[in-house]
Amino acid sequence: MNKQTKRTPSLPSKADILAFIGKQPGKVGTREISRAFGLKNAMRAELKRMLRDLADDGAVEKRGKKLHHAGTLPSTVLADVTARDTDGDLLATPDEWDEEAHGAAPKIRIHTPHKARPGQAAGVGDRVLLHVEETDEDAGIRHRGRVIKIIDHPKHRVLGIFRKAPHGGGRLEPVDKKMLGKELSIPAGSTHDAQDGDLVAVETSRAPRLGLATGRVVERLGSLASERAVSLIAIHSHTIPHVFRHDTQAEADAARPATLAHREDWRSVPLITIDPPDAKDHDDAVHAEPDTASNNHGGFIVTVAIADVAHYVTPGSALDREALVRGNSVYFPDRVVPMLPERISNDLCSLRPREDRAALAVRMVIGADGRKRSHTFHRIMMRSAAKLSYEQAQFAIGGRTDEETAPLIEPVLRPLYNAYEALVRARSERGPLDLDLPERKILLKEDGTVDRVVTPERLEANRLIEEFMILANVAAAETLEKAPVPLIYRVHDEPGIEKVNALREFLATLDIPFAKGGVLKAEAFNRVLAQAKGRDAEPLINDVVLRTQSQAEYAAENYGHFGLNLRRYAHFTSPIRRYADLIVHRGLIRSLKLGRDGLPEATDTAALAEISAQISATERRAMLAERETNDRLIAHFLSDRVGATFDGRVSGVHRAGLFVKLHETGADGFVPARTIGDEYFRHDEAGHAMVGARSGASYRLGDRVTVKLVEAAPVAGALRFELLSEGRPGRPSRRPRHEQRQHYRPRGKQRKAR
Fold first, then answer.
1. Dist CA 82 CA 376 (whole Å)
2. DSSP letter for each residue of 347-401
3. Model confidence, pTM
4. How far apart, in whole angstroms, are the C-alpha atoms of residue 697 and residue 357?
5. Which of 76, 112, 68 is nearest to 94 (CA)?
6. Partner residues linked to 374 by β-bridges
7. How do residues 21-71 score in pLDDT, each as one tens digit?
């Protein structure tokens, strides 16, 4: 009798993998493939390598950790509505599609509901976020879409600053950088009573053969008489809701403080808030103490308490509906556009010292090695013992106490810092991405004009709060996964192959190796950053490594957080300013039976996928608006220094010219290629350089340069520079034939940069 032996699973072939992916109704990831073919941990690294090869070959495409056949659409896409069919249904095409690899972009049929209210139905020319399903329809249209959100309407209006003419009418200075230098004429009688310096919306007319294009003012959006209103440009150009609806405000005004009913009384726990000195709301508080348990010698009990926003903002309420539309708060140097009205964000949910406040708290047991051993969530009533700034906390622990911090040193601050030291040990073992990117801050004067640009020092107190918040976020994700209750993850995919290859080529020019093959981990980038320490190019390398990374987003499916090197991560710590955190709070309330205001039972993964896509879009909108406002403020600040010289670095290389970042302010400006030297400069893409065709002199990414400010356009936030530095010496190279026909333009005949 032959003894039966257990068969060892073998790796599937690439053809087997493709066949398996093709049979699945939805997207499939490494986990599903491993289960299907019985692969153990030892084989998963090889499987991941095979999947990367298939992606490089264009056989499959990836979104997060999920794969689908190349040439198919993911379930949620950004699309442009292009036409209507004979039945009146809208047709759209995906915003991102590789036509060279997969041919013409597929059409998506959008059914327009008959009950859609005015302003809510999409139209031709709109950019929309769609939930897409594949169908068996004829006429070559295999995809059906449902509108999740209208992202943008057709660009039939132009925003700009109205400049009044002495004899009636005026002109418009567009705020869009792409329209720099393209002014519009506003005839008398078409000004809508706009005053000089007003931000206005103009409906454009067809441009005449000669002279300026014309338009008429259709809306006055506010006065830009001072820089205090510069953020209005970004608010209106990105259609950021900034005035609360009447029913939302009324609901906030009617809210009353939470009571102790159905809450644990933690008012005797000396939780404290540590925030920037100019913070207006304080939604997180911390506490730590040594763990006295016999099995956790040297360990700690760490508590993070977060304002209980879910108590005041209940599902389906006016506050909830508008919070979802806003998605997050937006922070400008001169104002904050909050997600929630001030009655909620700056009053009832601000953890003020010595005032009773409702909170959701997580109590975490930490070992001496800094690893979390266990955690529990609690719905509590707390009373903050103190409100400290980062500087106050740091000075106090360093021996420089004040009236507020002196009594807190031993009972509160010392245990916090001791627990933090343990967490640092665990962080070092985990090896998250360790980028050092100083964040500049614009300080304004009383009149709203720019005072100066500073780079706040990163203190241990900042890092302490960050580590405590990360730990609490992980605990929230773990709890909801085990429940199981659907949640919104904060996810960060690993960098794409093309970006990694580009980084490798760039690092090779600096003699810094970046290994090929193997599973990509954050520690590979940390090795690069460590080699850059102390080098002249350190700031540049940090910046380029950052650009290589994927963008973090929200998702209902988990594919981990590459940058933090965490398998599961969710946002729990700022429900005042992020809708994702509010969803996580509701999920915890539902799963732990902490109240009746938790996540509704009807909320499923599909619903959260739509919300995730929407709030990821509002987050990107906020980041762009904040960056554009900073650019405009700095352009205002430098506008009276045209002709001055500045030191900076080449921060970007493009065939059209060089981007330069100034050391003093961090301002970004452009040097057009036609103004560099007295010869033709060609773009060396692989070398990230502009190279002189005759002399071989070059300007490379990261080079220190001196520039002269030639033009400042505050309204558009644009700066134009002239290079004063000589390029690196080099050998002349033979110019391509098409470049030999170029005519060199002397510096005296420069045109305005766009």
1. 51
2. IITS--BTSEEEEEEEEEEE-TTS-EEEEEEEEEEEEBSEEEEHHHHHHHHTT--
3. 0.79
4. 65
5. 76
6. 365
7. 765 545 567 777 877 777 776 677 777 777 776 765 555 655 554 555 455
